[in-house]
Amino acid sequence: MTPAREAEGQGKRSRPGRTGYSYPRPPMRFRPTSIPEVLIVEAEAYGDGRGFLMETYRQREFAEAGIGFTFVQDNHPHSRGGALRGLHYQVHHPQGKLIRVLAGEVFDVAVDLRRNSPTLGSWTGVCLSAQNRLQLWIPPGFAHGFYVTSQAAAVVYKMTEYYRPEWERTIRWDDPDLGIRWPPKAEEPPLVSARDQAGLSFAQAEKVK
User: Fold this and answer.
1) pLDDT by residue (tens digit) across 22-74?
2) Is 157 a catalytic residue?
3) Rounded to 5°, angle at Cα 66 from 88 and 45
4) Contact between residue 143 and residue 167 where contact means Cβ atoms under 8 Å apart
5) pLDDT tens digit string along 74-119?
6) Which of 46, 89, 147, 157 is catalytic?
7) Could you say which of 57, 78, 88, 147 is catalytic?
8) CA-CA distance, 137 to 97, in Å (whole number)?
9) pTM of this prediction?
10) What's the mean per-residue pLDDT of the chain?
11) Where are the domains of the chain?
12) CA 89 vs CA 26, 106, 134, 164, 176: distances in Å
């Protein structure tokens, strides 16, 4: 039997009698944004001539970082360049979201709608891309939206609650009270759905308990 080879760089030898690679588990880092509960999740990618392997979720590490939720649904929107989705939230059964980008780049935004939060009405934004491989954790009680800054983008996100259309609410992406600094617009305005364009202002929107 062919002996197990060692991957380039930091690979470990497989157990005797088996072929292939044994990957060391790369560490996960959780960095707070300007709203401390919204976290940037960064994981090391382990690569060789074939490509790379990256762990995007490990329950134990997330729990140690204070993210002890169970994820119940995954969504995968694909959007054209210049598309803007949001700002969406559920006023009951609020959803926590773990967001990453498989292809392209987006500017991802979270707005604090927690009624008793010291950062109520504050927003934070992070560039997520297939290149930087960052993830963003948005806890329950936030509105979420993103703007596609590449020609197209494939986004995936895990959610802690099922989608419940009867409790979904929308806040206008361009609400002046929020003052979100979206990336510079191209020659045309962003592509926004009729539903999102008809969203409420932050002042009118129901807040989350």
Assistant:
1) 556 667 899 999 999 999 999 888 888 898 888 889 899 999 999 999 999 99
2) yes
3) 85
4) no
5) 999 999 999 999 999 999 999 999 999 999 999 999 999 999 999 9
6) 157
7) 88
8) 6
9) 0.85
10) 88
11) 40-197
12) 33, 19, 22, 10, 19
Q: Which helix (H) or strand (E) is 64 found in, with range?
A: helix 59-64
Active site residue 89: no
Strand 105-112 and strand 135-138: pairing?
unpaired
- The rounded distance, in Å, linking the Cα atoms of 120 and 122 is 6
What is the CATH topology of the domain spanning 40-197? Jelly Rolls (2.60.120)
Pairwise CA distance, residues 96 & 37, whole Å: 11
Contact 185, 98 (CB under 8 A): no
Looking at the DSSP bridge assignments, the partners of residue 153 are 79
Give the Cα separation of 4 and 16 in Å (integer). Answer: 7
| Percentages (nearest 5) of helix, strand, coil residues in the chain | 5, 40, 55
